[in-house]
């Protein structure tokens, strides 16, 4: 990777500004002081050979080299993006006794859950075997955005590197033979002034209310599919909306983030912190734009959206493209830095290639580029983009953003989310058996569904003013998104680790696995979690009742 310089990112921001100037679209250029980790080179030496590698951001700088025995902890490669961020290492092979004092080599990407576990068990370093012929850039910290004092204990303190699969298999043989390797990583880390271009297209009816459309402009290597296509999408939407601003009821705010790849979404997290109260009061939805318009991406499958937005997103995609679409719970990834505030959210990655084509090409699961395995490599070049697909995806994003901005009543159906809550609570109760009682949470969900039915009936029959309905729909997000997507209190950021539905009571799935030494503690956690969930659902029901005729 060419030597990165702070001015490179500022140059990219100024390029966006230059293009906005050329389009006649006004903007702000905000300045953010971000803590970033810049990876340069890495290598692994062993068995008389030197293997090139890529260090992930936030690995420890170890340019002097770390020599230690190598131990292989087998892991599975993800079959789809649904399991991409889930730890998959063999539990029996990753015991503390086995990995302590060793350099661990394991299959998969250098994602934070894997690295954090190995570090906590005493590994001196980690080598990730990527699935194919290329190694991929990434970031290995579980800290979301710039760390605060409470986050610092989770900052990685070990060197980490990614190698391609052929080299990884050779290194596994060294591990099996009881050999040792030398791991070197070259990193820079510190505070960097970073620029955040922001466009605001004012609405005419409720200018204080806004939809936030956003995506990152920093990329690995050239980064055409991740995320130059997204940056182009937002520029075009800025142009179209500014030209047609007289048609907007609510405002649309468009932001380009730095620090996505080198600070674990540091730019969007900074914005979530710096403008938290404005977002809390006025943002009606956030829409993430990452990796649209890539070649072969002819399907809308595994698209991220929160459940209350599902029907709206599916209708929008169908109206624009004529295609059915399938969505999933947003991963704790991308620039979803706003869950703690409680924003209804949709999209992250958009279109992707068909599963049959991916298998035909022998591609493995990646986190962007429409499924192209050039993701996070030096091969993410102009041929990854497809003009016709990009135009289609731009239309989807534009229609989705304008639809929310211009809706008389915000198009989010909270009955869909509460129905999912009831299903989740039932599933957790079934897993827990008589070891826990989730009855209060189940009753609260049932009551909330009943009052929501009356609320949406009043909306449909025009017996409830649109302004009152919109206030309730927005405030429901502030209550229900955090209880479904966060463990931390509002205005703090959960780690970049998978978050299960209704996480406060997700331990219900594991109660049967606890022995007498820990069962009581787990049950105490369940009581507290059930209280949190039931209280949130009751608060939501009171809010809905307060305006329903």
UniProtKB/TrEMBL annotation:
<dbReference type="GO" id="GO:0006508">
    <property type="term" value="P:proteolysis"/>
</dbReference>
<keyword id="KW-0458">Lysosome</keyword>
<comment type="subunit">
    <text>Homodimer. The monomeric form is inactive while the homodimer is active.</text>
</comment>
<dbReference type="Pfam" id="PF04389">
    <property type="entry name" value="Peptidase_M28"/>
</dbReference>
<dbReference type="GO" id="GO:0004180">
    <property type="term" value="F:carboxypeptidase activity"/>
</dbReference>
<dbReference type="GO" id="GO:0070573">
    <property type="term" value="F:metallodipeptidase activity"/>
</dbReference>
<keyword id="KW-0479">Metal-binding</keyword>
<dbReference type="GO" id="GO:0005576">
    <property type="term" value="C:extracellular region"/>
</dbReference>
<dbReference type="Pfam" id="PF02225">
    <property type="entry name" value="PA"/>
</dbReference>
<dbReference type="InterPro" id="IPR003137">
    <property type="entry name" value="PA_domain"/>
</dbReference>
<feature type="domain" description="PA">
    <location>
        <begin position="67"/>
        <end position="171"/>
    </location>
</feature>
<keyword id="KW-0121">Carboxypeptidase</keyword>
<feature type="domain" description="Peptidase M28">
    <location>
        <begin position="198"/>
        <end position="382"/>
    </location>
</feature>
<dbReference type="GO" id="GO:0005764">
    <property type="term" value="C:lysosome"/>
</dbReference>
<keyword id="KW-0256">Endoplasmic reticulum</keyword>
<keyword id="KW-0964">Secreted</keyword>
<keyword id="KW-0862">Zinc</keyword>
<dbReference type="GO" id="GO:0046872">
    <property type="term" value="F:metal ion binding"/>
</dbReference>
<dbReference type="InterPro" id="IPR007484">
    <property type="entry name" value="Peptidase_M28"/>
</dbReference>
<keyword id="KW-0378">Hydrolase</keyword>
<keyword id="KW-0865">Zymogen</keyword>
<protein>
    <recommendedName>
        <fullName>Carboxypeptidase Q</fullName>
    </recommendedName>
</protein>
<dbReference type="InterPro" id="IPR039866">
    <property type="entry name" value="CPQ"/>
</dbReference>
<keyword id="KW-0732">Signal</keyword>
<keyword id="KW-0333">Golgi apparatus</keyword>
<keyword id="KW-0325">Glycoprotein</keyword>
<keyword id="KW-0482">Metalloprotease</keyword>
<keyword id="KW-0645">Protease</keyword>
């Amino acid at each position: 990777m060419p030597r990165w310089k702070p001015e490179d990112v500022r140059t990219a921001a100024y390029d966006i500004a230059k293009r906005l100037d050329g389009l006649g679209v006004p903007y702000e250029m905000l300045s953010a002081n971000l803590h970033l980790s810049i990876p340069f080179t890495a290598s692994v030496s062993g068995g008389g050979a030197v293997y090139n590698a890529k260090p992930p951001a936030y690995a420890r700088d170890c340019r002097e080299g770390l020599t230690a025995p190598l131990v292989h902890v087998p892991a599975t490669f993800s079959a789809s993006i649904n399991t991409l961020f889930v730890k998959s290492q063999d539990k029996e092979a990753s015991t503390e006794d086995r990995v302590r004092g060793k350099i661990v080599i394991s299959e998969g990407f250098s994602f934070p859950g894997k690295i954090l576990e190995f570090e906590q068990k005493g590994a001196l370093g980690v080598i990730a075997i990527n699935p194919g012929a290329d190694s991929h850039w990434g970031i290995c910290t579980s800290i979301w955005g710039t760390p605060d004092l409470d986050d610092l204990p989770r900052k990685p303190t070990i060197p980490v590197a990614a190698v391609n699969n052929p080299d990884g298999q050779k290194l596994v043989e060294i591990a099996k033979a009881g050999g040792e390797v030398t791991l070197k990583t070259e990193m820079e880390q510190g505070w960097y002034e970073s620029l955040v271009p922001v466009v605001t297209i004012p609405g005419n009816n409720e200018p204080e209310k806004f939809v936030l459309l956003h995506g990152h402009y920093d990329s690995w290597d050239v980064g055409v599919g991740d995320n130059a296509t997204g940056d182009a999408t937002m520029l075009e939407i800025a142009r179209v909306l500014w030209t047609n601003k007289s048609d907007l009821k609510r405002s649309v705010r468009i932001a380009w983030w730095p620090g996505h790849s080198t600070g674990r979404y540091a730019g969007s997290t900074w914005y979530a912190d710096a403008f938290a109260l404005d977002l809390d009061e006025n943002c009606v939805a956030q829409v993430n734009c990452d990796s649209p318009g890539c070649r072969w991406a002819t399907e809308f499958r595994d698209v991220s959206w929160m459940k209350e937005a599902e029907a709206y997103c599916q209708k929008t995609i169908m109206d624009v493209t004529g295609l059915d679409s399938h969505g999933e719970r947003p991963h704790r990834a991308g620039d979803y830095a706003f869950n703690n505030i409680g924003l209804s959210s949709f999209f992250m990655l958009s279109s992707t290639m068909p599963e049959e084509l991916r298998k035909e090409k022998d591609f493995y699961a990646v986190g962007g580029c429409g499924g192209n395995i050039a993701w996070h490599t030096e091969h993410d070049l102009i041929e990854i983009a497809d003009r016709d697909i990009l135009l289609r995806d731009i239309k989807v994003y534009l229609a989705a953003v304008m639809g929310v901005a211009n809706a008389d009543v915000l198009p989010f159906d909270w009955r869909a989310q509460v129905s999912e809550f009831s299903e989740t609570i039932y599933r957790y109760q079934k897993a827990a058996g008589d070891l826990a009682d989730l009855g209060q949470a189940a009753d609260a969900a049932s009551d909330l569904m009943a009052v929501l039915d009356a609320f949406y009936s009043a909306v449909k029959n025009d017996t409830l003013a649109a302004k009152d309905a919109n206030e309730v729909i927005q405030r429901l997000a502030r209550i229900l998104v955090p209880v479904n997507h966060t463990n931390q209190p509002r205005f703090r950021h959960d780690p970049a680790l998978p978050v299960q539905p209704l996480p406060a009571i997700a331990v219900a799935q594991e109660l049967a696995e606890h022995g007498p030494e820990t069962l009581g503690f787990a049950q105490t956690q369940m009581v507290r979690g059930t209280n949190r969930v039931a209280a949130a659902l009751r608060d939501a029901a009171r809010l809905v009742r307060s305006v329903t005729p």
